[in-house]
Amino acid sequence: MPLLPYCIVSSESQVKPPDAGVRGGELLSLEESGLTCFYSEVEGPPKTSDEVRADALTFQETVQAIFAQATVIPFRFVTLLGSEEELHDFLEDHSEQYSEALGRLEGMEQYEMRMKQLPAPAEDEEAGAEYLKQKVAANSAALSVSEALRSAAGELVRGWHFRDSGETVRCYALIQREAQQAFKKAISSAKIPGEVRVVLSGPWPPSEFVLREQASE
Question: Which residues pair with 201 in a beta bridge?
């Protein structure tokens, strides 16, 4: 059966994973090059929207249960591998990158700030000049809010990542685990425009900062 990998931790981590994962599959582990990957066997990808939601929820709960005990690098849902040999080769090929990331991100967690009600660009059918004007204004507002949030968090932030997908604007903050209460308080005090609502979620595994160039340290 295909393998569903959840996350990777350092083999030195003391982790007691949940007994079962997606669809009740036994949670197994494989060690390679100083890394431990937790996974389970599944019959295949989810086939209906209800199965997708249920599997995604269990997947996230499983990763969070392990993350509560150690720094993790999560896989994307839903990643499927064909065999233990394929998983072994994957860990071997990426061992240097993941070992470096786990060491650098030890004791860290990630928060996401999603911006809502930012000024929306005009519809494409409107005059081109007006469309571009509103688009620039929207981008400027998003950057302004991002800067206000980061400024409010100050030295609590160890890394910051801004992402504008065109429809949704998100900021990601990397902080030490023990700083989470201070970080939440700081973010809530940020001065941002009244028409913009910031939705904070976390803590999550620091997946946005696995690649060194994504972290503004």
Answer: 112
Q: Could you tell me the two tokens for 82?
A: 């064909």
What does the CA dihedral 199, 71, 74, 147 come to, rounded to 10 degrees?
A: 30
Q: How many domains does the chain have?
A: 2
C-alpha distance across the termini of the chain, in Å: 42
Q: CA 211 to CA 202: how far, in whole Å?
A: 20
Residue numbers of the domain that contains 146? 108-214
Bond prior to 203 in cis (omega within 30° of 0): yes
Q: Which of 73, 104, 135 is the last residue of a domain?
A: 104
Nearest alpha carbon to residue 190 among 137, 139, 144: 144
Kindly report which listed range (74-83, 112-121, 141-150, 155-164) carries the lowest average pLDDT score.
112-121
CATH number at residue 209: 3.30.70
Report d(CA 87, CA 3) in Å as an integer: 8
Whether 136 and 56 map to the same domain: the answer is no
Which residue type does 85 have?
E
> If we measure between CA atoms, which residue out of 206, 97, 106, 93 comes closest to residue 159?
206
Which H or E element spans position 143? helix 128-153
pLDDT tens per residue, range 42-83: 999 999 999 999 999 999 999 999 999 999 999 999 999 999
The pTM of the full predicted model, rounded to 2 decimals, is 0.83
Please check whether residues 82 and 114 belong to one and the same domain. Answer: no
